[in-house]
C-alpha cells in the first residue's frame, strides 16, 4: 500500500468545493496514517533539487569544518552540525519517555545539520564559512522561508478540514520558530545494522506541528502501519525523473493541540526494501531534507479549546512551545 498522494494545487487554485474536498482528504490521510504525500506543492523544483544537492556538499566538507559549527548538546533548539551518534531518536518515542534507561544503547547511524529562522537572535544559526561552501547559507535561508510558507498553507487547509476558525492554527505559528534539517546516512555494513543496536533512525515521532520531508532515491523511510501497530511500511521515493513529492507527517504538537484527534506518525529509517533479504554487503549512503514546522515559542502546546469538553478531558498540559522543545531536546541526549 502506498500513501495517499494529494495534489495541492486543488487547494491553492481550486474552487471552494475543491478546497474543501482537498482539506477533507488531507485530514483523513493524517487520521489514517499520520502521513500524506503532496504533489504540486508550490516549491520550485529547481530549488528542491539544489537543496538536496546542498546536503551532499555540506556533509562532504572535512570533519574539522563541520565540527567548527558543532551543535552544543543540551536542552535548546539545535543549531549547526550533529555528528553520527550525537542524537538518539530511540528516546523520542512518546511512550518511552518514562522508561528511557533501556534505550540508552540504541544509536542512530546518521549525521545532520540544523538551522532555525534566518536572523534568529535568541538561538543564532551556525553556518559554514562562505569560502567553504559558497551560497549554502543563502540557499538554506531561501528554502526556510519557502518551507514555512507552504506549512502555513497546510495549516490553512487543516483549519478548513477540521472546521476550525480561520487563523486559529496559522496565528500560532508566527513569527517562525521552525527548523530546517539536512540528514546524511553514511554507507554502512548490513551486518552492523543486523546486530540490532544501530539503526539509521529509530522509530520516533517528531516534536513540532508537522514535518516536511524530501528524500533521495535510496529509500528506507518507513511509517507505522496503523492497522498492525508495531509493524512498518515503506514510504517509497517518488519517480526518478518526475516532479518531487513532498512527504508530510503529523508531529507531537499537532497531536497535543487536537487532544489525540489527529495523532503523530511514528516513523523510522531502515534498510531499503530491495535489500531487506540481503545479509551481506553495504547499505548505500542516503540523504534527506527536512523541515520541522514549529509553533511560535510563546504559544501553548496544550489542547485547543475546541478539542476539550466535559466528556473529553485535556490529555496534555499547558506548556509553551519553547518549554516543550527544551523538554524534548533534553531527552535526546
Ligand atoms: O531521513 C528520513 O527520511 C527521516 C529522518 C527523520 O525522521 C528525522 O530527521 O526526524
Ligand atoms: Fe523524524
UniProtKB/TrEMBL annotation:
MF-aspect GO terms: metal ion binding; oxidoreductase activity
Signal sequence interval, chain numbering: none
InterPro entries: DIOX_N, IPNS-like_FE2OG_OXY, IPNS-like_sf, Iron_ascorbate_oxido_reductase, Oxoglu/Fe-dep_dioxygenase_dom
Pfam families in the record: 2OG-FeII_Oxy (PF03171), DIOX_N (PF14226)
Keyword terms of this UniProt record: Iron, Metal-binding, Oxidoreductase
Record carries keyword Phosphoprotein: no
Domain named Fe2OG dioxygenase: residues: 175-295
One GO process term, biological-process aspect: small molecule biosynthetic process
Family: Belongs to the iron/ascorbate-dependent oxidoreductase family.
Protein name per its UniProtKB record: Putative gibberellin 20-oxidase
Species this protein is from: Amniculicola lignicola CBS 123094
Organism phylogeny: Eukaryota, Fungi, Dikarya, Ascomycota, Pezizomycotina
Amino acid at each position: 500500500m502506498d500513501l495517499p498522494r494529494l495534489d495541492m494545487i486543488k487547494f491553492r487554485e481550486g474552487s471552494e468545493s475543491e478546497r474543501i474536498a482537498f482539506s477533507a482528504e488531507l485530514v483523513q490521510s493524517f487520521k489514517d496514517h499520520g502521513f500524506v504525500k503532496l504533489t504540486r506543492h508550490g516549491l520550485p523544483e529547481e530549488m528542491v533539487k539544489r537543496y538536496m544537492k546542498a546536503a551532499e556538499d555540506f556533509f562532504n566538507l572535512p570533519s574539522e569544518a563541520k565540527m567548527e559549527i558543532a551543535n552544543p548538546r543540551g536542552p535548546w533548539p539545535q543549531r549547526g552540525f550533529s555528528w553520527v551518534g550525537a542524537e538518539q531518536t530511540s528516546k523520542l518515542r512518546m511512550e518511552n519517555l518514562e522508561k528511557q534507561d533501556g534505550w540508552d544503547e540504541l544509536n542512530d547511524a546518521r549525521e545532520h545539520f540544523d538551522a532555525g529562522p534566518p536572523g534568529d537572535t535568541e538561538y543564532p544559526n551556525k553556518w559554514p564559512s562562505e569560502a567553504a561552501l559558497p551560497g549554502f547559507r543563502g540557499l538554506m535561508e531561501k528554502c526556510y522561508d519557502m518551507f514555512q510558507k507552504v506549512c502555513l498553507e497546510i495549516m490553512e487547509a487543516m483549519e478548513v478540514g477540521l472546521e476550525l476558525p480561520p487563523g486559529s492554527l496559522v496565528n500560532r505559528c508566527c513569527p517562525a520558530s521552525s527548523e530546517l534539517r539536512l540528514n546524511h546516512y553514511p554507507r554502512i555494513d548490513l551486518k552492523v545494522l543486523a546486530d540490532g543496536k544501530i539503526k539509521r533512525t529509530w522509530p520516533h515521532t517528531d516534536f513540532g506541528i508537522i514535518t516536511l520531508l524530501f528524500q533521495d532515491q535510496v529509500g528506507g523511510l518507513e511509517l507505522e502501519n496503523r492497522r498492525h501497530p508495531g509493524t512498518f511500511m515503506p514510504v517509497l521515493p517518488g519517480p526518478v525523473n518526475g516532479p518531487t513529492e513532498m512527504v508530510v507527517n503529523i508531529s507531537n504538537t499537532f497531536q497535543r493541540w487536537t487532544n489525540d484527534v489527529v495523532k503523530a506518525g511514528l516513523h523510522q529509517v531502515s534498510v531499503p526494501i530491495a535489500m531487506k533479504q540481503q545479509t551481506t554487503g553495504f547499505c548505500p549512503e542516503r540523504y534527506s531534507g527536512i523541515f520541522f514546522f514549529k509553533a511560535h515559542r510563546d504559544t501553548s502546546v496544550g489542547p485547543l479549546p475546541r478539542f476539550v469538553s466535559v466528556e473529553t478531558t485535556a490529555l496534555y498540559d499547558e506548556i509553551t512551545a519553547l518549554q516543550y522543545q527544551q523538554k524534548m531536546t533534553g531527552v535526546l541526549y
